Automatic annotation (TrEMBL):
Cited InterPro entries: Ac_CoA_lig, ACAS_N, AMP-bd_C, AMP-bd_C_sf, AMP-binding_CS, AMP-dep_synth/lig_dom, ANL_N_sf
Family: Belongs to the ATP-dependent AMP-binding enzyme family.
Organism of derivation: Glomus cerebriforme
Protein name: Acetyl-coenzyme A synthetase
UniProt KW keywords: ATP-binding, Ligase, Nucleotide-binding
Annotated ranges, domain AMP-binding enzyme C-terminal: 538-613
Single GO MF descriptor: acetate-CoA ligase activity
Keyword DNA damage set for record: no
UniProt xrefs under PANTHER family: ACETYL-COENZYME A SYNTHETASE, ACETYL-COENZYME A SYNTHETASE 1
Length: 652
């Protein structure tokens, strides 16, 4: 480990002492420890109190927690009733209609739009009325395949208003991936747009949707928002224009009050087997997780402008662009562009322009901008910032230091936040006014979270400090996903059965001598490329679907910029030919451009055990230049292929 990682940075004194800034909600480490202890000693009192403090209930709950990890029957706030859209919109619209809810920063610089809570309520209601008129009702599923426009958030909230389960598909996914997600969820409608704009490029969204819908029997309608106004294929009566539909309806629609445990949304994520899982989040627990973490992890206060740079297609966008900021009545920035467009100053222009107070991005973006140098940061007034966050993958200490010094000018708290699609909200993190930071460590558990380091083999809890193992969580917390859509067994198998009685994260972890947690990365076949979660099995199966491919082995290789990158080895069927370009295209088409392997090696044979299992470990070593440390090869069926593979990798 580098020196930087051992340095402890105290809470920046500006956060605690500058009279211009609001007093942090938690302003000392002792204070954090005290609240944490309480939350662990008596979780029901803690969560019950927070649920009443942060959410509006139409009917009070009768029990805080029932069920547990043992049987996978967790339920929070039973018999309680509420509505997520009411919590995120109505109550703020009535109290403060002119407060800005969303700032849309479009791809083209200089093009931004402010939407107040009053306007948001009108738009959400109109869309909800339109969905109702199309026959949608509570419990139905709607797919959202949208670029980063405010209408995407409006779509989330309109679904929530009616108790409709939204299933957002990241607009970088291919038509095939979209089709599979629509079919798995039996979505009835797709909400989409004509096109998208990102980094000056056009994304042909509607075309991709049309391609997907060739094989989606459950889809009845496509609601198309006009983003660019270009001519796009449109087939009435299936396709409907957003603006024409919304015009028809009045800007009020009563919220459908739902049970605390009714589903709020599905979000597909990659696991260690081929098929993506529809992770299901429920209304009250998820919303409470979003509300409480936004408030404490980012030290959110009344007049803040909160800017999360993620895409709404991932969980980070769900929780920290939409639900978290809005449930707190905050102002959230929707950023449509990239950190590089039109120059590597774009983030900092946006921070200065909108006076962003909390800024949240991913290590891959931080590394990229660091590489472009400090000049792009300097000269922009970043003094509004108090908290800068990182999420999605381990942040290397060098990138952390750059973020802290150059972007934060040593005056901002850096929150390295660890969580997952499944956890719904942040579970390991520093608190801005309280936690001394170590670069590269997600530090300590959030309130109510009981992390444990397990011995991966025995499953025993490793007590004390200075231990390494796998990360699991000991007790349920409200925002943990309840099930995998239509496949509860898979939920049990993936998360609750590997270590009985615990939620298993799939990540390796260390707890250092001071009790700080260090995420080591996935211990399963899941890769993390530029913060995107990809499964080796999913990419392999995409390759195998190519007519010429016989076998495929995919590995994650360390990459300076993207954390990991994808390398693939394939063998071809007899008498078949295929080139690397074609195979790359195959992955782009089946999953999406972001999953494309950086390198594909077409080889004659893959290293296999005598029982036929592909030994990916060997491939990883060869690609990483560690062919001299291949380890135990006794189970390898044909050792003679090793030098051939080494030569192939060298010459590619
Ligand atoms: C996986 C979850 C949760 C938002 C984005 C990713 C990795 C996430 C960190 C962090 C080290 C991290 C883990 C985790 N990860 N945040 N701060 N430090 N690793 O969500 O796509 O569900 O991926 O991302 O490996 O298991 P996701």
């Amino acid at each position: 480990m580098t020196d930087a990682a051992h340095q402890v940075h105290p809470v920046p004194s500006r956060l605690l002492n500058d009279p211009k800034f609001p007093k942090p909600h938690v302003n000392s480490f002792e204070n954090y420890e005290k609240i944490y202890e309480e939350s662990i000693k008596d979780p029901e009192t803690f969560w019950g109190k927070k649920a009443n403090e942060l959410l509006h209930w139409h009917k009070p709950f009768e029990a805080v927690l029932s069920g547990g990890f043992e049987h996978g029957d967790v339920a929070w706030f039973r018999e309680g009733e509420l509505n997520a859209s009411y919590n995120c919109v109505d109550r703020h619209a009535y109290a403060n209609p002119d407060k800005v809810a969303m700032i849309y920063e479009a791809d083209e610089p200089g093009n931004s739009r402010h939407i107040t809570y009053g306007e948001l309520l009108h738009q959400v209601c109109r869309l909800a009325n339109a969905l109702k008129a199309l026959g949608l009702k509570k419990g139905d599923t709607v797919a959202i395949y949208m670029p980063m426009v405010p209408e995407a958030a409006i779509a989330f909230l309109a679904c929530a208003r009616l108790g409709i389960i939204h299933s957002v598909v990241f607009a970088g996914f291919s038509s095939g991936a979209l089709r599979d997600r629509i079919n798995d969820a039996s979505s009835k409608i797709v909400i989409t747009s004509d096109e998208g704009r990102r980094g000056g490029k056009t994304i042909h969204i509607k075309k991709i949707v049309d391609e997907a819908l060739k094989e989606c029997p459950t889809i009845e309608h496509v609601l198309v928002f006009r983003r660019t106004g270009s001519d796009v294929p449109f087939s009435a009566p299936r396709d409907l224009w957003w603006h024409e539909e919304l015009e028809k309806y009045r800007p009020y629609c009563p919220p459908e009050i739902v049970d605390a445990e009714d589903p709020l949304f599905l979000l597909y994520t990659s696991g260690s087997t081929g098929k993506p899982k529809g992770v299901l989040h429920t209304t009250a627990g998820y919303l409470l997780g979003a509300a409480i973490t936004l408030k404490y992890v980012f030290d959110y206060h009344e007049n803040d402008i909160y800017g999360c740079m993620a895409d709404i297609g991932w969980i980070t966008g769900h929780t920290y662009i939409i639900y978290g900021p809005l449930v707190n009545g905050g102002t959230t920035v929707l950023f449509e562009s990239t950190p590089m467009y039109p120059t590597p100053s774009r983030y900092w222009e946006v921070v200065a322009k909108h006076k962003i107070t909390q800024f949240y991005t991913a290590p891959t973006a931080i590394r990229l901008l660091r590489r472009h140098g400090n000049d792009y940061v300097k000269g922009h007034d970043l003094s509004s910032l108090r908290v800068i966050g990182s999420v999605g993958e381990p942040i290397n200490p060098e990138a952390w230091e750059w973020y802290y010094e150059v972007v934060g000018r040593k005056e901002c708290a850096v929150v390295d936040t660890y969580w997952q699609t499944e956890t719904g909200s942040i579970i390991l993190t520093p608190l801005p006014g309280a936690t001394p930071m170590k670069p590269g460590s997600a530090t300590f558990p959030f309130f109510g979270i009981q992390p444990v380091v397990l011995d991966p083999v025995s499953g025993k809890e490793l007590e004390g400090n200075d231990v390494e193992g796998v990360l699991a969580i000991k007790k349920p917390w409200p925002s943990l996903a309840r099930t995998v859509y239509n496949d509860h067994n898979r939920y049990l198998k993936t998360y609750l059965n590997p270590y009985k009685g615990y939620y298993f994260t799939g990540d390796g972890v260390g707890r250092d001598k001071d009790g700080y947690y260090w995420i080591r990365g996935r211990v399963d076949d899941v890769m993390n490329v530029a913060g995107h979660r990809l499964s080796t099995a999913e990419i392999e199966s995409a390759l195998i679907c190519h007519q010429s491919v016989a076998e495929a082995a995919v590995i994650g290789i360390d990459d300076e910029l993207t954390g990991q990158c994808v390398h693939a080895f394939t063998t071809l069927k007899d008498d078949q030919i295929a080139d690397v370009k074609e195979l790359t295209l195959q992955v782009r088409n089946v999953i999406g451009p972001f999953a494309a392997p950086k390198k594909i090696y077409i080889v004659n044979d893959l290293p296999k055990t005598r029982s036929g299992k592909i030994m990916r470990r060997i491939l990883r070593k060869i690609v990483s230049g560690e062919s001299d440390q291949l380890g135990d090869l006794s189970t390898l069926a044909d050792p003679s292929i090793i030098p051939v593979l080494i030569e192939k990798v060298k010459s590619s």
